[in-house]
Design brief:
The complex is a heterodimer of chains A (440) and B (275).
Chain A: H1 2-15, H2 18-37, H3 44-50, H4 53-61, H5 71-103, H6 109-115, E1 119-123, H7 126-135, E2 142-145, E3 151-157, H8 164-185, E4 187-193, E5 198-200, E6 206-217, E7 223-234, E8 240-246, E9 251-253, E10 256-273, E11 276-284, E12 288-290, E13 297-305, E14 308-311, E15 314-317, E16 326-333, E17 336-344, E18 348-351, E19 354-371, H9 375-394, E20 398-404, E21 414-419, H10 424-435
Helix pairs in contact in A: 2-5, 3-4, 5-8, 8-9
Chain B: H1 3-32, H2 37-64, H3 72-93, H4 98-115, H5 131-160, H6 167-172, H7 176-209, H8 217-239, H9 245-267
Classes of the chains: A alpha+beta (440), B mainly alpha (275).
The structure holds protoporphyrin IX containing FE.
Chain lengths: 440, 275
């Protein structure tokens, strides 16, 4: 039994130690760097081609093809969380004690010594002591008497700084937790379509209707902004909301975030049979249409050129403005290519009884839809981390204590003591500067 | 951007570079020959250079109608500016001119790198048109500047024990304990700003790309840098200032900064490569 207790104690000690933290952090940094050098998410074959079969075997076996989600990486992150938690728990009583102690004015010489290192200076009187304290940056100075009846002054600042590292550690913990939970719980969907389309969002009860989609171009033909105007309806309740989403300004509705992700061209493909309209459907570039009464016949809109120019290298688009639409199509019959060509507006292609025309090119929008309920937790973690850093670095605990020398008839002057452990030599120099007279 | 704006910016940029170069040489003479005067002139040249550099950036910003921090050239020149700013502040604050000897070569290298980049002003793709971008990049510039200073101070720390003490060194190179404190101050500033950089970058990425963290190489390397400096802090706490390992980590940290900035764009693919 005793052995188990000792082992648990030892393990706890290691887990809450700073040495363990340093080791973990170094390994984490190296792993992150490794993941950035090795292409991630490739297949064994791709690694074997890039390196050698043996190396590829190791890469896949060790999970180096997906470092950031590999079991050992996650285990390290979990250990870091445990480490942070343990370290923060262990340190609460100690920080509280120091925090409280610094709040009280020392009333004995021994207490003052404990609070004020070896930094001491002799001064004339209480007036000069206060002046020095002001010069050292203390605005509020407390007045009191020691247990043996001598007058004293006390200044303290940066007590909150005692919590800096603690708050920073808490922030990192929340950040990792928020990120990790988000990774496991988040949902992602994509939908794409043209104005007027209503699209089901994955297996949810939401339907997105694209009311409008615009691409704003600048004078030099580069894109200024993509904007989709969308309505989202929850079919289970009938509730609906409308909003616009553009790059850098997603729409947030029903706890989902709608991102304007990308765009492309779509056009209508009209098929006539013996002069009679058979079908007319919108198809995105890269997609195809199956002829209604002859499923073996497939018409693919391979590419679309808004401003068609024919060059030696084939068709290109001279600009992204809709000046001279060109449709590159392919016709398949029973899986075999029957023909391909580029048509311009108004031209048609005839295949036996069928005539095909392309018309009304327009931009479709691709929306990405996500839900990550833990993003706010991760953000909170980030902000708490920053707060902790601010406290740790810019609010160092600093104390100055001044006391009347001797008592009764032997009054002859005052002694000032100062302390700022984090300020190190910089604070000591400043203290000397102030107390030796050239500090103002 | 109006042609004459670009020409003025170009002129100012070239003069800035020459001034930084002259400051670097004079600071070197000051340290190598142990003479006081060159340092005084170097400090003036560096300050004037900094003022012209600021003017060049403002003119470019006005011409482009946005913060001049979005392509490789703009970020490089801003990086050099941030390093120069933090360097001037630390030299002044700690009366520490030898810092100039070690920091000006880094400033000059970075502005030299900027000079080799294309200075074209291009319109931004929609994802880059965000208010968060301004916060993201300007905090990065201060962070990188501060890390550059901690690098220079840590190099002095590591070299300090090899230097034979004489009056000049006693006067101009602080003792190791003080060097450690100055480096710590610089790292503190840098880490705080790097944290801002990462958080604002994540907020922006969430809005622009839909995920706040996607292990893109630049993100990953800024995390690596952040971790290295966290290790620096703990090593310092654990071993005390006499130990060299913290100083070594400050040097490694700045190598990571440079890699995050130049290496990632050059060697690794990702959304952050501005090309
Ligand atoms: C990513 C992880 C971590 C970060 C960002 C971090 C950050 C910090 C910071 C900023 C400080 C203040 C340093 C200073 O004031 O100079 C600090 C102090 C400290 N850290 Fe961490 N830390 C991390 C992990 C850990 C872990 C896992 C432990 C576990 C043992 C730990 C133990 C300590 C201790 C004991 C201190 C001294 C506290 C004090 O002076 O009040 N740290 N840490």
């Amino acid at each position: 039994m005793g052995d188990i207790v000792t082992t648990v104690k030892k393990t706890w000690k290691i887990i809450s130690s700073m040495g363990f933290a340093i080791g973990l952090l170094v390994i984490l940094a190296v792993s992150c760097a490794l993941g950035s050098f090795l292409p991630q998410g490739e297949t064994y074959a791709a690694y074997a081609e890039a390196y050698s079969e043996r190396t590829a075997g190791w890469i896949v076996a060790l999970g180096l093809d997906d470092v950031y989600h590999s079991p050992w990486f996650l285990a390290m992150a979990a250990f870091l969380c445990l480490n942070l938690l343990a370290c923060n728990l262990v340190r609460i009583p100690q920080i509280l004690r120091r925090f409280r102690a610094a709040g009280e004015m020392p009333r004995t010489a021994a207490a003052a010594e404990a609070a004020a290192d070896q930094l001491t200076a002799a001064c004339r009187d209480s007036h000069q002591a206060e002046e020095w304290m002001h010069s050292l940056g203390f605005r509020k100075i407390r007045t009191g008497t020691t247990e043996d009846g001598r007058e004293c002054r006390y200044g303290v600042r940066g007590r909150a700084g005692l919590w800096g590292a603690w708050v920073c550690h808490l922030g990192v913990l929340l950040l990792i937790l928020g990120f990790g939970l988000g990774q496991t719980m988040k949902q992602e969907y994509t939908v794409y379509g043209l104005p007027g389309d209503s699209l089901q969002v994955g297996d949810t009860s939401y339907v997105v209707t694209i009311e409008d989609f615009t691409v704003d171009l600048r004078e030099d033909d580069t894109v200024e902004q993509y904007t989709a105007d969308i309505t989202v309806r929850d079919v289970s309740t009938g509730e609906s909301h409308r909003d616009t989403t553009s790059v850098n300004s997603p729409a947030r509705m029903f706890g989902l975030t709608f991102y304007q992700n990308s765009t492309g061209w779509a056009a209508g493909i009209r098929v006539d049979k013996n002069g009679e309209l058979l079908q007319d459907e919108n198809v995105c570039a890269g997609d195809y249409l199956t002829v209604a009464d002859l499923p073996d016949l497939v018409i693919m809109l391979t590419a679309f050129y808004p401003d068609l120019r024919m060059t030696d290298q084939g068709p290109v688009s001279a600009s992204s403005a809709l000046n001279n639409p060109g449709y590159l199509y392919m016709v398949y019959y029973q899986g075999q290519v029957l023909g391909m060509n580029v048509l311009t507006e108004g031209e048609q292609v005839t295949i036996d009884d069928y005539t095909v025309t392309f018309h009304d090119p327009q931009n479709y929008t691709l929306l990405q839809i996500r839900r990550d309920p833990f993003t706010p937790l991760a953000l909170l973690g980030g902000l708490v981390t920053i707060l902790g850093l601010l406290l740790a670095f810019y609010f160092p605990l600093t104390q100055v204590w001044a006391v009347e020398d001797g008592s009764g008839e032997e009054l002859n002057g005052w002694t000032v003591r100062g302390r700022c452990p984090k300020g190190g030599i910089l604070f000591r120099e400043r203290f000397k500067e102030v107390t030796q007279g050239d500090g103002n | 951007m109006a042609i004459n704006n670009l020409a003025i910016e170009n002129g100012l940029f070239t003069v800035t570079m020459l001034l930084y170069f002259a400051a670097m040489i004079l600071y070197f003479i000051f340290f190598a020959m142990q003479r006081e005067r060159p340092a005084s002139i170097a400090a003036i040249l560096q300050t004037v250079g900094f003022a012209l550099h600021t003017a060049a950036l403002i003119i470019r910003g006005i011409g482009a109608g946005r913060l001049p921090m979005t392509n490789q050239y703009e970020f490089a020149t801003s990086f050099a500016w941030g390093l120069c700013l933090v360097c001037l502040i630390f030299v002044h604050r700690y009366q520490f001119r030898v810092l100039g000897t070690f920091a000006t070569p880094v400033i000059f290298l970075i502005i030299g790198y900027a000079a080799m980049q294309s200075k074209d002003v291009r319109e931004l793709m929609p994802a880059l048109r965000s208010g968060w971008l301004g916060f993201h990049v300007s905090t990065a510039i201060i962070a990188y500047g501060a890390f550059g200073v901690s690098f220079a101070v840590s190099m002095i720390f590591l070299l300090r024990e090899r230097m034979k003490d004489n009056d000049f060194l006693k006067k101009h190179v602080p003792q190791k304990e003080k060097l450690d404190m100055i480096s710590y101050r610089a790292v503190s500033l840098g880490l705080l700003f790097l944290s801002f950089t990462i958080v604002t970058g994540a907020i922006w990425a969430e809005r622009a790309w839909g995920t706040y963290w996607s292990w893109d190489p630049k993100e990953t390397w800024s995390l690596v840098t952040w971790i290295i400096y966290a290790v620096y802090l703990h090593l310092r706490l654990r071993r005390g200032w006499k130990d060299r390992s913290a100083a070594i980590f400050a040097v490694i940290g700045f190598i990571c900064v440079i890699f995050t900035y130049i290496g990632v764009n050059t060697f690794l693919p990702g959304v952050h490569s501005y090309k």
